[in-house]
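Contributing new complexes? Match this layout with NAP.
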Amino acid sequence: MKLTVTTALATSAILSVSAFQPNIRCSRVSSRAVRLTSQADDTDATLDRRTFFASIVQKAAVASLVLTSSPSAIDVANAADVFPKVYKPAANSMNGKLVVITGGNTGLGLESVKRLAAAGATVVLTSRDAGKGRKAVDEVTTYLDANGVQGGKVMAANLDLCDLDNVKTFNNRLKEIIGDKKVDVLMNNAGVMAIPDLTLTKDGYEKTFQTNHLGHFALTATIMPLLASNARIINVSSLGYQFAGKGLELDNLNGEKQYGPWSSYGLSKLENILFTNELQKRAQQSDKWSGLTAFSLHPGAVQTDLARYLIGEEKFNSMKENGFSSWTDKLVMESMAKFIKTVEEGASTQVYLAAADNITPSMAGKFFDNGKVEKVNGFATDDEKAKELWAVSEKLSGVQFKL
Ligand SMILES: NC(=O)c1ccc[n+]([C@@H]2O[C@H](COP(=O)([O-])OP(=O)(O)OC[C@H]3O[C@@H](n4cnc5c(N)ncnc54)[C@H](OP(=O)(O)O)[C@@H]3O)[C@@H](O)[C@H]2O)c1
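Output block (do not edit by hand):
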């Protein structure tokens, strides 16, 4: 329990609060919670990791207390009318399907691999570390064996989204694995969150921007020739996009004007949505790709290792081993636990979008939460900004879409 809540409290500082925000009837509560977290960007940038983490814990504690006093939040947390809390595609329903999942070695990606392979799909999981990739394949294989699955297969391929050369050659590595088979589902799932300080990749771009958006943009463009014409492209976003409250700032994509751990995450998750919108629009206008469907989604606030970027991997692992020592940690643990989804629950929306056979044309290009289309803020449906982001992304990545 203490392991999972370690993650929960850091992600919950922003994610569990925002996860329920649009649905909570008490808007004063959610806006206060949002204010608490967005202040982190302004005030915490100069703090060291330890202090930063402590301040996040306190903010999460306050936010969680605010939220636990709202019964409607609990209702929302339990709402799941599209599918039960955990969506499992039927056995054999994915037979013959080929799925590629980025960041498939852990968290929501790994869980998605398991569930789709268990339904019969062949899944290629990507990992930036070969050892982690092999370990994930072993874990999935054990899972499939334990569940008596015959059809599902899993393989790993290297992908580092922070290295555009690596991204641009991914299709060759994929081809070696899949041969002439076409990809039915591309799940752009990998991500980082709230990196404390501005960090540049080897390509010179801000790490959150490149990992969460630019790398996936380039990957999708490069992989297009390997996609089935009716492929589904699933971009794992977050309700954290709302932290880019000013909308897309094209002159601050790399934190040039101002860098904040949360605002940068929010911006990248907004980019996931705008990319989805524009991709769907362009696909519909193209003869070849009119059957392609793109989705973006919020998985919920989920107990994964995503918080390790916020507190540093070493400290994160040590907390995993030793647990919490302070009363604030305990407070957060006890009060937040009921709002945080398990990985099985959290992966359900993306697995549903990959596997469901009741997806209608009206759902194409939409943002999903708990398996349902969720209305997004106006700045996340800004067509002009989406078009500009597309052009800038092609320029920065050096990869052109052929749609
Ligand atoms: N957990 C939540 O509460 C939550 C809420 C909203 C949205 N999301 C979104 O859900 C997605 C999955 O997150 P998660 O919670 O499952 O996190 P996670 O457990 O930390 O998994 C993230 C995955 O991304 C991979 N990754 C990171 N940097 C990469 C890079 N440069 N190149 C390739 N892969 C890279 C990681 O690989 P390594 O293991 O090698 O680092 C890992 O496999 C993310 O897009 C996140 O924004 C999560």
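Reviewers usually confirm one structural detail per submission. For this one: The first helix runs from residue 2 to 12.
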